[in-house]
Design brief:
about 140 residues; mainly alpha; 7 helices
Length: about 140
């Protein structure tokens, strides 16, 4: 992923966590994993990618010739925009990457698989963030 996009994602997560801290009158030094765990939240980027994967199924399940399906195919072909990004997204979560296979699944089946994969990644990230070293301290 492009470093500039990574930086924007980090800023977005930081902004959301700070908003939650202010909303619930929590100290600004409250650890992010504690907030994510206590409130049962997903990390912002994971929640966004979850919605993108669900939306991908919605586009792929449209009838042949629908304009959204055509745009997705075209952006994948020329390797730009959302089409390029979403092409690699399912593989990052060990989900089927073949668009025909994704489209053949029922909505509840695909949504369940996506949510399970995202929840697993959220748990892994929480554990990693709990053991992260900041300023020489765990």
């Amino acid at each position: 992923m492009v470093p500039q996009q990574e930086q924007k994602k980090k800023e977005l997560e930081k902004t959301e966590i700070n908003a939650i801290k202010l909303l619930f009158d929590l100290p600004l030094r409250t650890p992010t994993p504690a907030i994510i765990y206590s409130f049962g939240l997903l990390y912002t980027t994971l929640r966004i990618e979850q919605q993108q994967l669900i939306y991908l199924w919605k586009i792929l399940s449209k009838e042949s010739g629908h304009w959204t399906k055509e745009i997705l195919a075209e952006t994948r072909t020329i390797g730009v925009g959302w089409g390029k990004m979403v092409e690699d997204l399912p593989a990052r979560y060990n989900l089927p990457s073949d668009f025909h296979e994704i489209a053949s699944q029922r909505k509840n089946e695909w949504t369940g698989r996506v949510k399970a994969a995202i929840e697993k990644r959220n748990k892994e990230r929480l554990l990693a963030d709990c053991h992260k070293e900041i300023n020489g301290q765990n």
